[in-house]
Specification:
This protein is mainly β. It has helices spanning 4-13, 136-145; strands at residues 25-33, 38-45, 54-56, 59-72, 78-83, 87-90, 98-113, 119-124, 130-135. It has a single domain (4-145), classed as Jelly Rolls, CATH 2.60.120.
């Protein structure tokens, strides 16, 4: 079993990146297979914060490595808490939501499969209208920008 110091060392080995001006999380892209529309990445959520409301346009698998992964309704109410060790499979076009970390934040591994015309995620406004998208090509560009290697 991994100790707290092992997880802290793991966290320090990853080069964490910001996605534009979005707050309360950092990412690292691990791999992208554009031909099969698969992307793997890790997100580190800040403690007791939540990110923007969005919709997944791809099948998404998550594994909570550390902390508590929280899922929120668009109105901000807590919908679900996923403790470390939780594995979840969500179909494309699941209901809009936001996500965040618990009291100690969270490290969550994501695997997306497929897309909606190349779109993996839609960023939504308060009226749940799409204001931005993040596509497979965008994630590939993020991977290339970090040197084309996991952890970079």
């Amino acid at each position: 079993m991994a100790s707290t110091s092992d997880l802290a060392r793991f966290d320090r080995q990853i080069a964490w990146h910001r996605l534009g001006d979005f707050e309360h999380f950092h990412y690292n892209v691990l791999a992208v297979d554009a031909a099969r529309e698969i992307a793997d990445f890790i997100i580190r959520y800040a403690p007791d914060q939540r990110i923007f409301v969005h919709r997944h346009r791809s099948d998404t698998r998550t594994f909570v490595i550390q902390g508590e992964h929280r899922i929120f309704e668009p109105d901000g109410s807590l919908k679900e808490v996923r403790p470390a060790g939780s594995y979840t499979i969500a179909p494309a076009d699941a209901p809009p939501h936001s996500e965040g970390g618990g009291a100690d934040g969270a490290l969550v591994l994501y695997n997306t499969r497929g897309s909606a015309g190349g779109v993996l995620f839609e960023v939504l406004d308060d009226g749940l209208l799409t204001v931005a998208t993040l596509g497979l090509a965008d994630v590939l560009a993020l991977f290339d920008a970090q040197g084309g290697r996991a952890g970079g």
